[in-house]
Amino acid sequence: MSRIVLGVGGGVAAYKSALLLRAFTEGGHDVRVVPTAGALRFVGAATFEALSGSPVTSDVWDDVPEVAHVRIGREAELVVVAPATADLLARAATGRADDLLTATLLTATCPVVFVPAMHTEMWLHPATQDNVATLRRRGAVVLPPAVGRLTGPDSGPGRLPEPADIAALARVVLAHGTRALAPDLAGRRVVISAGGTREPLDPVRYLGNRSSGRQGWALARVAAARGADVVLVAAGVDAPAPFGVRVVPVGTAEELRAAMLAEAAGDDRPADAVVMAAAVADFRPGTPSATKLKKGSAAEPTSVPLVRNPDVLAELVTKRAPGQLVVGFAAETGDDEGDVLAHARAKLARKGCDLLVVNDVSAGQVFGAEENAVVVLAADGTVTEVPRTGKDAVAAHVWDAVVPRLSTPRPD
Ligand code: CTP
Asked: Is 331 in the pocket of ligand 1 (CB under 6 A)?
């Protein structure tokens, strides 16, 4: 349990901060909400007080003997400002202390995460971009806004990411500090596969697997938070797009193959990194029935002949664009022929990818679990162990391994 300060700026997206507060308290955290006066015009103090169980004020003149701004700032282990409006970013960047939130930001020594939300023009304005650069230079995380529907009929970058995404990213910063969300994928294009393929037996049945897609979703969310333009090729998972990334839904291994090859090549420019986190079926029913298989019918099946699916990862490696980094995943167990690392090294060499993220599944399966422990193997021989941690934190470690190996200059 950590002490989190939730700063709320005066934008329409302030309504989502109540859900974020709820996500934090349900995660067992002790939350103090510090809204601006503008935020309290959108959401009443009573909502924040009831959900946080603590008093709420925006004014340094309340509770003077307690010197609230100093105590709240000093005690915080994480400050999350969501939504961070253009005005709030400007006041924070210039070191103003004209309300309880900005004063608290000056006394906090813990990690600070700003989650901007505003109209696209305000976000792209050089004044706002300069303020964002200043705050980042001083060590704060400033998340890029999600792309999507804004307050009116317009859409573009400026949307507050969904509270569940912000809460997941806040957990990574609590565990690993602000470095985990460095904006080092800005200007990069990454393509990630996630979930598990479904191979039809007939129009209503399929052969599938138990991949939940959570690790792939986390990879997409963290890459977007680090500034990347992300495409998520999602097999058999129908969850909301993380952080507003573009999701390409697919079903079978063949569909996944076509989508991954097209997205890796790109229309305008190839992806900088391609990550195969999906569990791809190695086999599919050779002749799926066009009509539903009925029990008792003459066509009642007694066995299912299988044919081999293409190895998408191997094909992505052979067809990759110059400088494109390819990352594979592998679930391994040790056996008589070698331990987990020996099998993983052999697979890395066989597949020819640059990085292999290895799950040791000897002690039980990881499908659907909240946490994961992995080893990241690099073709250059580097081995990075990531002890059991949340899947978003695992994702941050994977991107940490990817970023220094991206060789092509970043297009500006
Ligand atoms: N993969 C793929 N196409 C397949 C099968 C797997 O692209 N038809 C990718 C997965 O997305 C993952 C990696 O390859 O990134 C896993 O390698 P794979 O050889 O499938 O692992 P296992 O199924 O564990 O292989 P084996 O049974 O040979 O150990």
From this structure: yes
CA pair distance 158, 80, nearest whole angstrom: 17
Ligand 1: nearest atom to the Cα of 282:
8
- Give the closest residue (by CA) to ligand 1 atom 27: 282
Mind listing the pLDDT tens digit for each residue in 326-341? 999 999 988 999 999 9
Whether 255 has a pLDDT exceeding 90, the answer reads yes
Q: Is the CB of 278 under 6 A from ligand 1?
A: yes
CATH code that applies to domain 189-405: 3.40.50.10300
Is 293's C-beta closer than 6 angstroms to any atom of ligand 1? no
**Residues 212-245: pLDDT tens digits?**
999 999 999 999 999 999 999 999 999 999 988 9
Q: What is the C-alpha separation between 283 and 321, in angstroms, rounded?
A: 28
pLDDT digits (tens, 9 = 90+) for 175-199: 999 999 999 999 999 999 999 999 9
Q: Where are the domains of the chain?
A: 3-181, 189-405
Here the tokens at position 354 are 């640059």
- Active-site residue list: 209
Handedness of CA 120, 412, 185, 109 (dihedral sign): negative
Architecture (CATH level 2) of domain 3-181: 3-Layer(aba) Sandwich (3.40)
- pLDDT at 299 (0 to 100): 76
Task: Give the integer Cα–Cα distance in Å for 396 and 69.
Answer: 32
Tell me the pairing of strands 112-116 and 306-308.
unpaired
Strands 283-285 and 273-276: unpaired
pTM: 0.95
